[in-house]
Amino acid sequence: MKNLILITLAVVLFAACKKESSPAKTTDDNKTLIIGRWYFTQDTVKQYKNGILVYYSTTGGLDIGTAYEQFNADGTYTDFFNGKASTSPYSLEGNTLTLTQSNGTESGQIKTLSSTKLVIFYDDNFVDGNTTSRTTEVAYLSK
Known about the structure:
By secondary structure, the chain is an alpha+beta fold. The protein has helices at about 1-15, 25-35, and strands at about 35-50, 50-55, 70, 75-80, 85-95, 95-100, 105-115, 115-130, 130-140.
């Protein structure tokens, strides 16, 4: 009986121990990690009209390997796509990245951010009369 109690106690103590997780990245960490030139390695775009997939691409029309986004410490970023560069402001709050462009702003959620890997998810919805459009994009970038 004494052995059964000791075994039960050992199992309970073992189960109660939990592995210490690494601390979550802070906004300051993200703001530091995002600085630099990020090359597109894949850009998955899906477009839906009234819930039906009408377009799918893993390049998003980009020159994969040469297209990049460069984020600067002064709050500006440069897009370089298909041989053309443009510079605009950006902001980063937590995991929400907001890019200001000539035609408005676009916000995405950072899914992964390390010193060498950046993954951003965008989800845009539009309603025009009887047509509902949705575009999702997952941008995979690396330094």
